[in-house]
Amino acid sequence: MRRNVMAHAIRVHKYGGPEVLQWDDVEVGAPGQGQVKLKHHAIGVNFIDVYLRTGLYPQPSFPFVPGMEGAGEVTA
């Protein structure tokens, strides 16, 4: 049975400084074919994430979750 669960994420809804980071509840669906679900234990935010947040590197759509690096376990 596939079910969605709620999780928390820091998301960016518009370009700007650190003040545009928002703590959001997000719905996480079951992984599709060829996908996995990860439980993050640690994430990293690097300069690319800062550049995306400020608009130096345009982000194709909002909101987005910064963090190109992570460590954790595959749960599904």
Give a structural overview.
With about 80 residues, the protein is mainly beta. The protein has a single domain (about 5-75), classed as Medium-chain alcohol dehydrogenases, catalytic domain (Quinone Oxidoreductase, Chain A, domain 1, Alpha-Beta Complex), CATH 3.90.180. The protein has one helix spanning about 45-55, and strands spanning about 5-10, 20-30, 40-45, 70-75. The protein has a two-stranded antiparallel sheet. It has a two-stranded antiparallel ribbon with strand order 3-4. A hairpin with an 8-residue loop joins strand 1 (about 5-10) and strand 2. The longest helix is centred in the middle third of the chain and has 8 residues, at about 45-55. It is globular. About 0% of the residues are buried.
Question: Which helices and strands, and how do they pair?
Answer:
Elements: E1 5-12, E2 21-28, E3 38-44, H1 47-54, E4 69-74
Antiparallel strand pairs: 1-2, 3-4
Q: Per DSSP, what share of the residues sits in E-state strands of 2 or more residues?
A: 35-45%
CATH class identity: Alpha Beta
**Radius of gyration, CA atoms, in whole angstroms:** 14 Å
**CATH homology-level superfamily:** Medium-chain alcohol dehydrogenases, catalytic domain
Percent helix among the residues?
10-25%
Shape, principal axes of CA atoms: globular
Determine the N-to-C terminus distance.
Answer: 12 Å
Second rung of CATH, namely the architecture: Alpha-Beta Complex
CATH topology: Quinone Oxidoreductase, Chain A, domain 1
Main sheet record: 2 strands, antiparallel
- Could you tell me the number of beta strands? 4
Order of helices and strands: EEEHE
Output the number of helix runs. Answer: 1
Strand order of the largest sheet: 1-2
Average pLDDT, to the nearest integer? 90
- SS content category: mainly beta
As residue ranges, the low-confidence spans are none
